[in-house]
Amino acid sequence: MNATCQLCEHPLAILGRPLKRLRWTRYWWRGLQSLLSSPLRVCTKCGAIYTFNGQLVAAGAAETDAELRLRGFKDDMAHLRDGFATVVLTGEVGVIWTMMSSVGYDPTIPIIMGTVGALAIAPCAYFARKASLAKKDLKLLKAARKRRTESG
Predict the structure, then answer these.
(1) Are 44 and 21 in contact (CB under 8 A)?
(2) Closest to 149 measured CA to CA, from 3, 8, 22, 13
(3) pLDDT of 35-73, one tens digit each?
(4) What CA–CA distance (Å, rounded) separates 139 from 43?
């Protein structure tokens, strides 16, 4: 059994979570089959998928380690962006609710709520920008992996 990639001579690893890793590729069925039979192997450098016996299934079909790390970073930044966006919306809805209610209120409450909502805009925009840049970089990495596969 060959434990290195035939394309780049990098050591192979067991493909964990094959349905998730091969989702949106045409090899998802092979991932499902690997759950019921022997596991697939993957080259974490170039994304090539091999059977457990060492036969090449697809070159560049799985995400590389760099893509997986970048995807995790992008998801984290998107969650932070969404958290701060929730604070912004909650502050603004609180101000509107307080202003429209028929019950008397302390005039400092809408000011405090509006200030908190407005201050949360800066981190929301920061994390939105980080998530957007990570998404662009992820697309570039995927395109480069696909080009390497087609050319070699």
Answers:
(1) no
(2) 8
(3) 888 899 999 998 899 999 888 898 888 899 999 999 999
(4) 19
Check if the beta carbon of residue 59 is closer than 8 Å to that of residue 48.
yes
On whether the CB atoms of residues 85 and 48 are closer than 8 A, the answer is no
Q: Residue 48: which of 38, 39, 58 has the closest Cα?
A: 58
Runs of H (alpha helix) within the chain: 18-21, 28-36, 65-100, 108-119, 121-151
Distance separating alpha carbons of residues 59 and 100, to the nearest angstrom: 61
Q: Are 8 and 46 in contact (CB under 8 A)?
A: yes
d(CA 152, CA 135) in angstroms, rounded, equals: 26
pLDDT digits (tens, 9 = 90+) for 92-150: 998 888 888 877 778 888 889 889 999 999 999 999 999 999 999 999 999 998 888 77
Q: How far apart (Å, rounded) are the C-alpha atoms in residues 148 and 65?
A: 16
* β partners of residue 14: 41
Report residue 3 as tokens.
């434990």
Read off the pTM: 0.81
